[in-house]
Amino acid sequence: MNFSYYIAKRYLFSKNSNNAINIITIIASFGVIVGAAALFIILSGFSGLRTFSDSLLEVSDPDIKISSVKGKTFLITDRIEDVLIENLEITSFSKVVEERIFLRYKDKEEISYIKGVDENYNQVTQIDSALNVGVWLDTELKNTAVIGNGIAYKLSIGFLNYGEPLQISVPKTGTGFLNPQNFLRTENTQLIGVYTGSQEFENKYVFTDILLAQELLRLDEDEITAIELKINNKKRIDNIAKNLQNSLGEDFEVKTKAQLNELYYRVINTENFISYLIFTLILIIAMFNVIGAIIMMIIDKKENLKTLLNIGATLKEIKRIFVLQGFLLTVVGMLIGLSLAIILVFLQQKFSMFMLTQNLAYPVEFHLSNLLIVIVTITILGYVAAKIASSRISKEFIKK
Question: Residue 249: which region, alpha, beta or left (left: phi > 0; alpha: psi -120 to 50)?
Fold first, then answer.
């Protein structure tokens, strides 16, 4: 093994008399370097995008949501509250009333959703940290609302514009939104804040106090549409949700954040996997250069191989020389590529060289798991490429 490794190292790092082989080897190395760097950067980019998207979900979605299986609303009883209060893994919970509504501001109209929340809601999600203008809801301020940036844009609402009230109307059950006579109730609200988030989120909700939402929808004080929870150990979220489901019974549906955003997670995981496959395919193509470089080296070193065979080297040892040469060529290219990629990732994190928008840098994250994926992928491909190239060697070929 040491003999084969010594010869392979000499063949790889010593300059060849044939310039064409030197050029082919450089091209093969460059392909591995670029492929390794690109694969790691793409995986780091997806890790950053996932974390960025998760931070948006921290604003819009609770860790766990409890809703009714039958009907839109349910009565929150002492038994339900006792189950939540006695569970030490629940940090806080908030009662929520949610329904489709009709908005009117001056001459602009829009269909949206009202989300009435209690005073604990900003402890369940980080919605108050997403405010770019104004303040969050205060129970002492009556008939106030916080809207998404998307809704504000559609209704042409200026920031902190107190001139005109925002009208919120709820239609009667089974009627449409177009005829004002079908409205059950209309309330004028004063805007006190605008929040940002994902495009879907900031185009969907108008937040109000839960009492205002209940009054609009003619609900009782203990009648709500959901309970949203924050837990203290995200790693146990599935077990906590399962225990709550068992405690509350079949009349309630308990969903985790992942289940609430099942389509989103499926899409981002699929995109990540497809990107990995695409760049792995690029690496496979680059490995053809490695195979070509090794075959050219085998042809060029044919006389040396004959000498090695005559002095007692076995065919297996000779093949191993070029397997190790191809493997070393791949590993050296991989290490250079990964070093460059890691430097670029840290530079992006530190100096935000590439921007998504004027104020938002492209998110990237360094993860050892991504590093391991690249190392394993390129190591396997490099070994297979070297084995394919060395399989050309035979005693008949050497002795010709």
Answer: left
